[in-house]
Specification:
With 301 residues, the chain is of the alpha/beta class. It has helices spanning 27-37, 42-59, 63-66, 81-90, 105-112, 127-137, 204-217, 255-262, and strands at 96-99, 120-124, 147-150, 192-194, 225-231, 237-243, 246-252, 272-282, 290-300. The protein binds S-adenosylmethionine (SAM).
Length: 301
């Protein structure tokens, strides 16, 4: 196996110094952070989050860390999120996998909302970000039962492309999650795959590769779902723009191209239902900059 360098952040052109004025916890985000950290005082909570942000930005200066997107309870805005929670409640041994999980904040959200913790898995290039997640949420591997697999999702030893599972090949028994060091043993076993602010880091062909790799992990049981939100466009293509001081240079899919990729290229046409919605969102203030996003889900039929 060749020695692989972690990929650079090619989708981002600028890495500005951190700007505390971008910190803006909405009430629902503050409630989440207070409950999980036990820090009730607003100023102390802010300082705690700023400290972790500064450490994480040294590990990997992603726009999502710079913009405090990890403090947003983004799962709550995904149209298919209820379906995720239903799977956690109703399907025995269901697995929730978060790819590019960073601190694991979305995993903490699903667990808070009822998904069994021991059936959740995060995966990321950077072990340090996961460890900082423990520091951020004041947990430890003993108190927080989610699993973590460190690695590059483009490395076939971590995640190889495999055909979508069928009723015959879908995983019948769940692998031992405690000893997991690769995602490949999860082939055909995962009920929910979440990936937010992840696909847009990669070029068009890499996005297709990743989508195919996800498809191989997904359980064939109807209702199994892959979902997330990332940069979108009205017409697919390379998008170069500056948003709040971060210059991005990303390949962005449109509703039509994203739908056609999953339903036809990744999965055999007609075997999945794709829901993709394009929205330009602002961070709140009237007249604020708007950012184009694609909210999407792919459900096995
Ligand atoms: C922009 S952040 C998004 C984090 C989180 N999903 C969120 O919505 O806030 C992208 C994450 O993907 C991880 N990542 C980037 N390239 C990766 C790769 N090739 N394999 C695994 N993780 C990767 C980064 O380390 C980072 O934590």
């Amino acid at each position: 196996m060749m020695n692989r360098e972690p990929p650079k952040i090619e989708a981002q052109r600028t890495f500005p110094p951190l700007d505390e004025s971008l910190y803006n916890l909405r009430p629902r985000d503050a409630a989440f952070y207070k409950e999980l950290t036990g820090i009730e005082d607003d100023a102390a909570l802010k300082q705690h989050i700023l400290d972790i942000q500064a450490k994480a930005y040294k590990v990997a200066p992603y726009g999502c860390i710079y913009l405090f997107l990890f403090t947003r309870r983004g799962l709550l805005d995904l149209p298919a999120y209820r379906q995720v929670l239903r799977i956690g409640r109703e399907r025995k041994s269901s697995i929730f996998l978060d790819v590019g999980c960073c601190f694991g904040s979305d995993i903490r959200e699903v667990i808070l909302d009822g998904f069994p913790a021991a059936q959740t898995i995060g995966t990321d290039l950077h072990q340090e970000l996961w460890d900082l997640g423990h520091e951020l949420f004041k947990s430890s591997p003993e108190t927080f039962l989610a699993h973590f697999v460190r690695g590059d999702a483009f490395n076939p030893e971590i995640l190889a492309v495999a055909p979508p599972a069928s009723m015959q090949t879908s995983g019948t028994s769940t692998p031992d999650l405690d000893s997991l060091t690769s995602l490949n043993p999860l082939r055909g076993c995962v009920s929910v795959i979440h990936a937010t602010a992840f696909f847009h880091l990669f070029k068009e062909d890499q996005q297709l590769h990743m989508a195919r790799a996800f498809a191989g992990l997904l359980s064939s049981e109807p209702g199994s779902i892959i979902l997330g939100v990332h940069t979108g466009a009205q017409q697919k293509g390379v998008m170069n723009r500056v948003y709040r001081g971060i210059e991005v240079d990303m390949f962005a899919h449109s509703v039509e191209s994203w739908t056609a990729m999953w339903d036809g290229e990744v999965f055999e046409k007609g075997t999945v239902k794709v829901d993709a919605q394009f929205k330009e969102v602002s961070e709140g203030a009237e007249g604020d900059e708007r950012y184009p996003l694609l909210y999407w889900s792919v459900t096995r039929l």
